[in-house]
Design a protein that fits this description.
With 126 residues, the chain is mostly beta strands. Helices cover 3% and strands 48% of the residues.
């Protein structure tokens, strides 16, 4: 069975931290690069962070560099997104994705992914 299930969202004050987790079926996890995207109301889905299949390379949106960290745990078939120094503009539904981007730069492309989770809400209050 193929699945991606996110957890860890919630409400936090500006400056606070949250850790998101995405559990993936083994079949997806072992062959896929993984990423986090987010979508705020009235806005298009945007790339947040991505990690290659082996975990050796990562990519971040400029807006989250230095604040967010993506990681993957091969033993648990999960990817995490550690989010620090959160800002109100980080408020969105965060979704994890799995796919086969051809290169590190293409980690940021929505078209690189064909499996998506349902998303988890992150709300940052000012």
């Amino acid at each position: 069975q193929v699945y991606l299930v996110e957890s860890g969202g919630g409400l936090v004050q500006a400056g606070g931290s949250l850790r998101l987790s995405c559990a993936a079926s083994g079949r997806i996890f072992s062959v896929s690069a993984m990423a986090w995207f987010r979508q705020a109301p009235g806005k298009e889905r945007e790339f947040v962070a991505g990690i290659t299949r082996g975990g050796g390379s990562t990519s971040y949106a400029d807006s989250v560099k230095g604040r967010f960290t993506i990681s993957r745990d091969k033993g648990k078939n999960t990817i995490d997104l550690e989010m620090n120094s959160l800002k109100p503009e980080d408020t969105a539904v965060y979704s994890c994705a799995a796919g086969t981007p051809s290169s590190v730069p293409t980690l940021a492309r929505v078209q690189s992914y064909d499996n998506w989770g349902q998303g988890t809400q992150v709300t940052v209050s000012s």
